[in-house]
Model the fold of this input.
Amino acid sequence: MAALVLAAAGRARILQLASKANPTWYPVSSFSSSSVPTVKLFIDGKFVESRSDKWIDIHNPATNEVIGRVPQSTKAEMDAAVAACKRSFPTWADTSILSRQQIFLRYQQLIKENLKEIARLITLEQGKTLADAEGDVFRGLQVVEHACSVTSLMLGETMPSITKDMDLYSYRLPLGVCAGIAPFNFPAMIPLWMFPMAMVCGNTFLMKPSERVPGATMLLAKLLQDSGAPDGTLNIIHGQHEAVNFICDHPDIKAISFVGSNQAGEYIFERGSRHGKRVQANMGAKNHGVIMPDANKENTLNQLVGAAFGAAGQRCMALSTAILVGEAKKWLPELVERAKKLRVNAGDQPGADLGPLITPQAKERVCNLIDSGTKEGASILLDGRKIKVKGYENGNFVGPTIISNVKPNMTCYKEEIFGPVLVVLETETLDEAIKIVNDNPYGNGTAIFTTNGATARKYSHLVDVGQVGVNVPIPVPLPMFSFTGSRSSFRGDTNFYGKQQVTHIIKQEQHGILSSSNGLHHSPN
Ligand code: NAD
Done:
């Protein structure tokens, strides 16, 4: 009952803020000279205006209008945020696990109640369709629900009688201050991969959302506060490289969760690890779908279209590369026909299947990669470069694009495109397809489409890729399993969510019986 009352109170407060700060949920600055809404910092339980003189514009990708500004936090602000994390840690770590669990039970309820509002913010800042934005929140919500099972996840281990009169116990204890650095493509899901699991285990958290899409994180922070998280347990700073370097170097930060590009991830992994931090880094991808001629054609083509072009291809698990094996190559014209039917529009427009790319620079990069395909001998079967969206002529739109006759040495194959572009290769055998997948440096996700169980088993056992789908195009694990990744797609030892994300140190105790004999006890070592 108490939880329901709190949840209702939380919602009322959010709605009030939303109407004040229309059209975006940013607590608007009182001393900014500009009328553009500014994103605040969240330090020690307060949404505070930054005193920075360096600000970054936030654009609506469907129009390129400036819709807000985010600060590059000053050193003093970042220090204050870590200090708040550090100050609140002992009390939070000592708070009973049941009380922490209750806060996250209330949190999952508040996220559900505000799901549409969070999704609206995502569409505004990131551009994806409202349906995709709701999916973004929903997948993050599932991690919060998983975090609520902390009472099982944090169980330690015991071993009685490791010697005649001695037992051994291990505990999982929180690490301290942890930090998260998020990308632009999942503004709700990825922050929710990070702070809920760390915090429910008793850690405090410093979050740096992507500077392009901070709105969802701000609203999620407000909802966590409304759920009862004590002041200082979650803090939010904004910025780019300086904020990232600050996180990598700060001696009070014990662990870093990063999701984003390889360029940033390799750097953060190296710099954070050098300072003794535990770093997990989920990075780029080139996900292959292998289509066997015995696959169910209807389902496979539908799934390919959704997985390659959905969310405008700006998903780390987008199925961006198809390998057509043997006779499956005859399906290509039909694949093109289906892709042509997708509706490209602003994400908040009814019926939109895919929205714009995040920035004009992203659009230019994607178009250049398509150009490279033509120059290097591939064929463009469907070309989305010149698309015009009525009423949104300034948006960063690229329509579904299919490039065939692609070879593994071509630039459009080697680079992660991160746009609505499917590159298509052909092989005669499954073995050749497996070799292509394993020779590619990335190992994030892959899928095989087949009706043959032996083929599916062979593929899933031989490919060196983190997530494998059998007739499932985007095999993102549910949060009771970990999101993995191999080779260039991941750095670190512990994966996101599942049992591995229990952010802890293991403390070991050995209990012996005081002996009246000679006082020596016998160690098993
Ligand atoms: P990005 O690397 O540009 O940005 C991610 C974060 O790092 C941001 O907070 C940004 O401020 C910071 N950053 C950016 N460049 C930096 C640099 N040179 N040094 C230090 N910090 C830097 O990534 P993005 O464009 O926001 O996201 C897209 C990328 O994320 C794609 O490569 C995609 O595959 C990857 N991604 C991976 C997963 C996964 O689970 N493997 C999930 C989502 C996205």
About this structure: Residues 181-186, 208, 210-211, 240-241, 244, 259-261, 263-264, 267, 282-285, 316, 416, 418, 444, 485, 489 surround nicotinamide-adenine-dinucleotide (CB under 6 Å). The CA atoms of residues 12 and 466 lie 42 Å apart.
